[in-house]
Amino acid sequence: MPAAALFDFDGTLVDTTEMIHQSMRHATSSVLGRDHIPRETLLANVGQPLPRQMEIIDAEKAELLLEAYRSHHEEHHDALIGEFPGVEESLSRLRSAGIKVAVVTSKRRLSVEMALKNFPGLRNVVDRFVTLEDTTQHKPHPEP
Prior knowledge:
- It is a single chain.
- The chain is mainly α.
- It folds into two domains: 4-14 and 82-134, Rossmann fold (3-Layer(aba) Sandwich); 17-80, DNA polymerase, domain 1.
- The chain is 51% helix and 11% strand.
- It has seven helices and five strands.
- The protein has helices at residues 17-32, 39-43, 50-57, 62-80, 87-96, 109-118, 121-125, and strands spanning 4-7, 14-15, 82-83, 100-104, 128-130.
- The strands form two sheets. The chain has a three-stranded parallel sheet. The chain has a two-stranded antiparallel sheet with strand order 2-3.
- The longest helix has 19 residues, at 62-80.
């Protein structure tokens, strides 16, 4: 039996796809004036640290894109995230079997904390949260 199980956060334990999509759309629309970028394009680099995603979209305006994204994200976060059925129960079963449970995400700790306010039970079934601030190398690097 494994000693630990590692999980991503976005789209794995918490349904954040719509929140990410709408925040990306807001950022590209407000900063670049581009309203018709396909959803698949906006979500193509999800999983990488957000600053890197913004550099891929437009290196010269990455900082402005990041600010616009985070502003929208913080304002609309709670209304746009959802729960995946059975997540807490599944993680609880792993812990009951003696398996340590950790979340490894490229998300900022602040964003994880915002989500945990909506789903406080996750705190009880996760032994450790590793966020963007906890590592010097980020996904897809194996350090985290």
